[in-house]
Amino acid sequence: MSKFLSSIIPGQLVKVSSIKDSALKPKLMEMGLVNGKELRVLFKAPFGDPIAVDVHGYVLSIRLDEAGLIEVEDSH
Question: Which domains are delineated in the chain?
Fold first, then answer.
């Protein structure tokens, strides 16, 4: 079952499994969102967009439509 970063609740730890092909894919990868990278959703803005994600020690603010391009799986 695939999940996308846009649907993850704050506090949950996940791992990037893939990024959909799009014009944003290279930029997202440059920001550290690569296959296997662990992420933790820190919080969502009051109306749900954008979200803050901890990417190996730095906080990345990402829009929901961008987060919808990032497929994730539970990190164990």
Answer: 3-74 (2.30.30.90)
